[in-house]
């Protein structure tokens, strides 16, 4: 591929394996409010969704914007308390983004997470300087699976959407990337290969990726 391409990363489950901590935080949060939430329901009801959508699906009711923000931050405070004690990127991630940086590939983070979590994770991991653009849930009107956040990332990077690769772990996130007209590489931190096999490439770890493999996605 002669044209410049870019790589856009989701955050939870792609940069850090945070979903086990999010799962536990949601279970504790639901228990506090006496709402039934089974562990096996968490991936479908929560992973890859905004807090507004997850709260609606867990509580089976609509909340006001003020309630969504307050309850979302309450849940995220539980998550940060659980995960703050040990925060490292997924194995091979640092080496992967260093390879991209060495090859001059523009990079962005596009996540349904609130800005409080983005700041928390970027500070804990020290990764922010790798990314040209960081977009969180507060920057878009529609969360994934709507493609808005990926289209906005491409626009800010100055790269056409068809020349972007999305790194995702969730079904809603993968759908957002596909709907944005981008190539989608899915990592199996949150879902099985079978659940993600509608993407362009499914990997178990970053050691499976190389510049040649990324370029071949556009062939």
TrEMBL record:
Gene3D superfamilies: HAD superfamily/HAD-like (3.40.50.1000), Putative phosphatase, domain 2 (1.10.150.240). Transmembrane segments: none annotated. Pfam families: HAD_2. GO terms for molecular function: beta-phosphoglucomutase activity; metal ion binding. It catalyses: beta-D-glucose 1-phosphate = beta-D-glucose 6-phosphate. Its cofactor is Mg(2+). It comes from the Bacteria. It is an enzyme of class 5 (isomerase). NCBIfam families: HAD-SF-IA-v3 (TIGR01509), PGMB-YQAB-SF (TIGR02009). Belongs to the HAD-like hydrolase superfamily. CbbY/CbbZ/Gph/YieH family. This is Beta-phosphoglucomutase. CDD domains: HAD_BPGM-like (cd07505). Its EC number is 5.4.2.6. Keywords: Carbohydrate metabolism, Isomerase, Magnesium, Metal-binding, Phosphoprotein.
